[in-house]
Amino acid sequence: MVLDGGIPVRWLEKIEEHFLGVMLAAMTLVTFGQVVARYVFNYSFTWAMELTTVLFAWMIFIGASYGVRVGAHIGIDILVRALGPTAARWLGVAASSLCVAYGAILTFGGWQYLSRLYEVGIYMQDLPFPQWTSRIVLPLGFALLTLRFLGVLWKLLRGQEGHLLGDEAEDALKLRDEFEQEDQP
């Protein structure tokens, strides 16, 4: 599989999916371990809440990019559906252009924030790491998000089908059809 423009990114997609799965599993294990330690052994890990928060932040910022890739973001698209295909496409171009600009601004802002944290050298409250190490996800996540929106914009400009939003009704109908096919002999 190639990203728009011919850049191979199948490996990036797999890394992204596995990374999100690892973050979710790690969050679950740390939280479960904390609950067991607290209620069974009357002991508490001081670092568990901060680590869970960091893992959650990483999952959210990387997950936003993944959501654009799979079309999982929701929104109100009644206006777009009321327009003709050409007008809807150009509205999509405008919307994805704004999303690219938004992502680029936040990538730059995240990088500036990260640079300041690095210069100051503040450490996390309960974990023995500098704060910048956990917050590097800000420019990274927004850069990935910007790349995903650039991919959508490129598809729209080339006249291919590109989506910014998921279609819950269409997804539900597909699931229903799949279940009906499974039920039939």
Topology:
Layout lengths: L1 E2 L3 E2 L1 H31 L7 H23 L7 H5 L2 H36 L10 H5 L1 H21 L10 H16 L2
Helix pairs in contact: 1-2, 2-6, 4-6
As a whole number of angstroms, the C-alpha radius of gyration is: 21 Å
For the largest beta-sheet, the strand count, sense and barrel status come to:
2 strands, antiparallel
β-sheet strand percentage: under 5%
Q: Structural class of the helices, strands and pairings?
A: mainly alpha
Total of helices = 7
What order do the strands of the largest sheet run in, or round the barrel if closed? 1-2
Count of individual beta strands: 2
Distance between the termini: 35 Å
* Low-pLDDT segments, ≥5 res: 1-7
| Topology as a string of helices (H) and strands (E) | EEHHHHHHH
Helix % is over 70%
Q: What is the overall pLDDT average?
A: 82
Shape: flat
Please explain how this structure is put together:
This protein is mainly α. The chain contains 7 helices and 2 strands; from the N terminus they run ββααααααα. The chain has helices spanning 10-40, 48-70, 78-82, 85-120, 131-135, 137-157, 168-183, and strands spanning 2-3, 7-8. A two-stranded antiparallel ribbon has the order 1-2. The protein is flat. The two termini are 35 Å apart. Mean pLDDT is 82; it is low at 1-7.
